[in-house]
């Protein structure tokens, strides 16, 4: 009889529970349980569509801004599907990208320094890791400081963070001055400084041209990413935590990444091929069910019938970035590569943010009113957006501007959802074969766990 | 009458609502000063919650903060608590003895937004003072321990600090569907969790609109039967710090107040501290002059929007919303929703998702103007002095109501 052990990972917002089935010292099966549920999709039903702009960011206190953008795009798409062309000024697109970029960067900074590096402290008590100790460590504090700094960029354009609602169908409500732009730029510059010195150990632009692991290790000075790589190797995490080697990205971001799906070869992404399956979920098509085999509030999501990982790593792969294509050849989609992609994205987005800020033209519009009142619009809309953890999809059906149905598929639903009849979720698959509990937890964490998003 | 008619608006919004007496006279403040000094001396005599605790000065150094940064924070906090400037040294001392107060922070049906807001609060407020210096004995997000070890830590903290810790709750509690939130290895529901921890706490602080009033999860049709902490916890003082997210400054404010007085601050009828929720957004809004001049934004991106006109016609709920974010703002005072032209959505009021939400103009929304149910109709349910038997109940910012006046006198007598 295999041994079953249940672990509660509650160091993250909300909780995710992990049920591990052991055999001969290895994880034979893993169940990821999202035990908490709030019911946003039900709350949205019957409310005016524009209310979703303030309700949805509250789905998550960490990636709420991505939910705002997905909501805005879903409503804009609703107009388009009704045959009404919506003009979104270039300035507004840029501002949405800037703030989204800032949100993703703050998340990665925090995730790496507050969760991932402290995990290694559990594997070894080395003096070298002293700086990474939670609360007391110098690096830990610096990371909190810089991740707080970068969200000020969101506050400049969006009013506050978390939970902004400044993006609306047709653009953004803010009208930044040159002063605001300069302030935002200087914040970005200071974070660039931190990234160069502490994280990458080299100039950001040089880092972005690196195409292999050897090259990076050779060029970089002492850096946290380097420490991370060495530690992964020491604890065999460079080859652990492999999942399906299939990657999904739903949306482009200029200078940062492109959309697509990769299953051996890269192809286009079609939202029609996305399906949710609830055979192991408490939430079913016909209400709630607590049958014995059901174990999570989350649903399983499949693309063309198959599970896909969605994450910064997926974005790297779908953008055909050389460094990561090379890394995959050696290590496949392992713990180390998945985490490295997250860290990598800090550099990529900082670089992109600088370009975006420079492209804004304050004298041009930030908002163009939609061609009709929302009260006249009926139909369906889809909003696609890349959030810190991966792809986010909002689907809405409205009748005369009132929401009839709202469906949200979060990145965590893709990665940490339950299994379907045929396949485990990507994270469940990755954990299989882990040889200790702590490594199982770390592999789960390489997907950037978020339980509130998982179930919403 | 047209709803945006100026006379109509003036009549609506100049009705007396909530007045806070910010100057209660020399005698009052002298008395209060003495009491606070006494309390601080008592606290200083106590040991820090954790042994081998660093001195506050050292913490400042570790965080690369100067004494000047700290003093800036001290005066801001003193002003926020509506204390005269001569109380600044006391507030500074209060920060320094914060490590005498144990804290337990739990998350139920939440989005972690408040924790996020807290982590992003400005230096040197909460990062250092609450998370660092205050003894957070348990917090899921920032704690190093996970899983079983975390559960054990929590139980140990409850035992060690029985009857002494402040319990912070983030997120609503699904009483209608307890299985919508389970915690730990032996699934305990959110309801049981909160009740158990509240029983051993000295007071419970509900942070964010979810914990205070049920928040988003409680919006119609409230699929999980979510409620706020005050509907679950009985027999313990509950302090609500609503808003979505709650402003970290208000969280620190409540704690500092507790340290200074051993009491919870004076609350309004919705159990919100009056120092923070004693006035409306509209009372201190930077666009107020435009409101008074009848200059409104009619459409985003228009001339009015470019010139920071009033957002009332765009659905701003500032006139109905009690909160201090027009003064404190967010993200180190960087900005706030009205600053970027979005308007206030009333997130510190109960049921705001169903009645206040977004751009329904006032004529179309089922909102009652606040007159008549503002702070002046408050009864101080818990009295001040509930928390410590010896403490004397003088609210720092008592409203000049007959009730408050009487209470002060009575309790002063006890001390003599
Ligand atoms: S009140 Fe707002 S910030 Fe707080 S938990 Fe609820 S939704 Fe999140
Ligand atoms: S923007 Fe809102 S709070 Fe400010 S003056 Fe206008 S109505 Fe009042």
UniProtKB/TrEMBL annotation, chain A:
<dbReference type="InterPro" id="IPR018194">
    <property type="entry name" value="Ni-dep_hyd_lsu_Ni_BS"/>
</dbReference>
<keyword id="KW-0533">Nickel</keyword>
<keyword id="KW-0560">Oxidoreductase</keyword>
<protein>
    <submittedName>
        <fullName>Nickel-dependent hydrogenase large subunit</fullName>
    </submittedName>
</protein>
<dbReference type="InterPro" id="IPR029014">
    <property type="entry name" value="NiFe-Hase_large"/>
</dbReference>
<comment type="similarity">
    <text>Belongs to the [NiFe]/[NiFeSe] hydrogenase large subunit family.</text>
</comment>
<dbReference type="InterPro" id="IPR050867">
    <property type="entry name" value="NiFe/NiFeSe_hydrgnase_LSU"/>
</dbReference>
<dbReference type="InterPro" id="IPR001501">
    <property type="entry name" value="Ni-dep_hyd_lsu"/>
</dbReference>
<keyword id="KW-0479">Metal-binding</keyword>
<dbReference type="Pfam" id="PF00374">
    <property type="entry name" value="NiFeSe_Hases"/>
</dbReference>
UniProtKB/TrEMBL annotation, chain B:
<keyword id="KW-0004">4Fe-4S</keyword>
<dbReference type="InterPro" id="IPR037024">
    <property type="entry name" value="NiFe_Hase_small_N_sf"/>
</dbReference>
<dbReference type="InterPro" id="IPR006137">
    <property type="entry name" value="NADH_UbQ_OxRdtase-like_20kDa"/>
</dbReference>
<keyword id="KW-0560">Oxidoreductase</keyword>
<dbReference type="InterPro" id="IPR001821">
    <property type="entry name" value="NiFe_hydrogenase_ssu"/>
</dbReference>
<protein>
    <submittedName>
        <fullName>Hydrogenase small subunit</fullName>
    </submittedName>
</protein>
<dbReference type="Pfam" id="PF01058">
    <property type="entry name" value="Oxidored_q6"/>
</dbReference>
<keyword id="KW-0411">Iron-sulfur</keyword>
<keyword id="KW-0003">3Fe-4S</keyword>
<feature type="domain" description="Cytochrome-c3 hydrogenase C-terminal">
    <location>
        <begin position="277"/>
        <end position="355"/>
    </location>
</feature>
<comment type="similarity">
    <text>Belongs to the [NiFe]/[NiFeSe] hydrogenase small subunit family.</text>
</comment>
<feature type="domain" description="NADH:ubiquinone oxidoreductase-like 20kDa subunit">
    <location>
        <begin position="111"/>
        <end position="257"/>
    </location>
</feature>
<keyword id="KW-0408">Iron</keyword>
<dbReference type="InterPro" id="IPR027394">
    <property type="entry name" value="Cytochrome-c3_hydrogenase_C"/>
</dbReference>
<comment type="subunit">
    <text>Heterodimer of a large and a small subunit.</text>
</comment>
<dbReference type="InterPro" id="IPR037148">
    <property type="entry name" value="NiFe-Hase_small_C_sf"/>
</dbReference>
<keyword id="KW-0732">Signal</keyword>
<dbReference type="Pfam" id="PF14720">
    <property type="entry name" value="NiFe_hyd_SSU_C"/>
</dbReference>
<keyword id="KW-0479">Metal-binding</keyword>
<dbReference type="InterPro" id="IPR006311">
    <property type="entry name" value="TAT_signal"/>
</dbReference>
């Amino acid at each position: 009889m295999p041994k079953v052990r249940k672990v509660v990972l509650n160091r993250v917002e909300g909780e995710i529970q992990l049920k591990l089935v052991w055999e001969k010292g290895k994880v034979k099966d893993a169940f990821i349980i999202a035990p908490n549920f709030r019911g946003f999709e039900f709350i949205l039903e019957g409310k005016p569509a524009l209310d979703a702009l303030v309700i949805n960011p509250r789905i998550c206190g960490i990636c709420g801004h991505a939910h705002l953008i997905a909501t805005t795009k879903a409503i804009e798409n609703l107009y388009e599907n009704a045959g009404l062309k919506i003009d979104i000024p270039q300035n507004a697109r840029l501002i949405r990208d800037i703030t989204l970029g800032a949100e993703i960067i703050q998340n990665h900074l925090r995730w790496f320094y507050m969760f991932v590096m402290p995990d290694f402290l559990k594997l070894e008590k080395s003096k070298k890791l002293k700086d990474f100790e939670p609360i007391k460590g110098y690096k830990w504090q610096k990371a909190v400081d810089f991740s707080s700094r970068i969200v000020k960029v969101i506050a400049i354009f969006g009013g506050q963070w978390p939970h902004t609602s400044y993006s609306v169908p047709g653009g953004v409500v803010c009208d930044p001055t040159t002063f605001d732009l300069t302030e935002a730029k200087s914040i970005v510059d200071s974070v660039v400084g931190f990234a160069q010195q502490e994280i990458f150990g080299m100039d950001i632009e040089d880092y972005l041209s690196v195409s292999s692991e050897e090259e990076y290790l050779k060029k970089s000075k002492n850096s946290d990413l380097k420490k991370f790589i060495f530690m992964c190797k020491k604890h065999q995490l460079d080859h652990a935590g492999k999942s399906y080697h299939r990657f999904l990205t739903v949306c482009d971001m200029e200078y940062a990444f492109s959309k697509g799906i990769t299953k051996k070869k890269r192809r286009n992404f079609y939202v029609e091929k996305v399906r949710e399956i609830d055979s192991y979920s408490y939430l079913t098509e016909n209400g709630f069910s607590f049958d014995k085999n059901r174990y999570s509030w989350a649903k399983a999501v499949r693309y063309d019938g198959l599970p896909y990982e969605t994450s910064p790593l997926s974005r790297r792969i779908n953008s055909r970035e050389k460094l990561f294509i090379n890394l995959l050849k050696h290590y496949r989609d392992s713990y180390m590569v998945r985490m490295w992609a997250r860290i990598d994205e800090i550099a990529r987005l900082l670089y992109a943010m600088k370009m975006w800020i420079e492209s804004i033209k304050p004298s041009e519009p930030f908002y163009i009113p939609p061609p009709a009142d929302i009260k006249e619009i009926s139909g369906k809309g889809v909003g696609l957006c890349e959030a810190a953890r991966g792809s986010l999809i909002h689907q809405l059906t409205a009748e005369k501007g009132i929401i009839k149905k709202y469906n949200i598929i979060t990145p965590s639903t893709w990665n940490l959802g339950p299994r379907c009849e045929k396949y485990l979720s990507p994270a469940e698959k990755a954990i299989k074969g882990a040889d200790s509990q702590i490594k199982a937890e770390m592999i789960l964490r390489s997907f950037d766990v978020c339980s509130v998003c998982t179930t919403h | 009458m047209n709803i945006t008619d100026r006379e109509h608006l003036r009549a609506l919004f100049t009705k007396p609502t909530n007045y806070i007496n910010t100057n209660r006279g020399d005698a009052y403040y002298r008395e209060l000063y003495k009491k606070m000094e006494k309390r601080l001396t008592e606290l200083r005599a106590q040991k820090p919650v954790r042994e081998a605790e660093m001195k506050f000065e050292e913490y400042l150094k570790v965080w690369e903060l100067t004494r000047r940064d700290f003093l800036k924070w001290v005066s801001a906090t003193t002003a926020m608590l509506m204390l005269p400037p001569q109380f600044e040294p006391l507030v500074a001392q209060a920060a320094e003895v914060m490590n005498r107060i144990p804290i337990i922070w739990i998350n139920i049906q939440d989005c972690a937004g408040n924790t996020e807001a807290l982590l992003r609060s400005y230096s040197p407020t909460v990062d250092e003072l609450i998370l660092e210096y205050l003894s957070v004995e348990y917090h899921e997000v920032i704690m190093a321990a996970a899983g079983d070890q975390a559960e054990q830590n929590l139980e140990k903290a409850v035992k060690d600090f029985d009857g002494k810790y402040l319990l912070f709750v983030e997120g609503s509690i699904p009483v209608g569907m307890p299985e919508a939130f389970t915690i730990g290895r032996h699934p305990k529901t959110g309801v049981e969790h909160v009740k158990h921890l509240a029983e051993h706490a000295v007071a419970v602080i509900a942070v964010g609109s979810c914990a205070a009033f049920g928040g988003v999860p409680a919006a119609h049709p409230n699929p999980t039967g979510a409620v706020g902490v005050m509907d679950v916890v009985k027999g313990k003082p509950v302090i609500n710090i609503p808003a979505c997210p709650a402003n970290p400054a208000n969280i620190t404010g409540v704690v500092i107040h507790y340290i200074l007085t051993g009491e919870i601050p004076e609350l309004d009828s919705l159990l919100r501290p009056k120092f923070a929720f004693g006035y409306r957004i509209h009372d201190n809004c930077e666009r107020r002059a435009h409101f008074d001049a009848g200059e409104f934004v009619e459409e985003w991106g228009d001339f009015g929007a470019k010139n920071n006109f009033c957002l009332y016609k765009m659905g701003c709920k500032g006139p109905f919303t009690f909160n201090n974010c027009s003064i404190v703002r967010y993200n180190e005072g960087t900005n706030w929703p009205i600053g970027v032209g979005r308007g206030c959505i009333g997130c510190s009021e109960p049921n705001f998702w169903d009645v206040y939400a977004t751009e329904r103009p006032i004529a179309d929304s089922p909102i009652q103007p606040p007159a008549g149910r503002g702070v002046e109709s408050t009864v101080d349910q818990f009295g001040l002095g509930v928390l410590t038997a010896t403490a004397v109940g003088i609210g720092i910012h008592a409203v000049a109501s007959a009730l408050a006046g009487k209470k002060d006198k009575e309790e002063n007598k006890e001390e003599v």
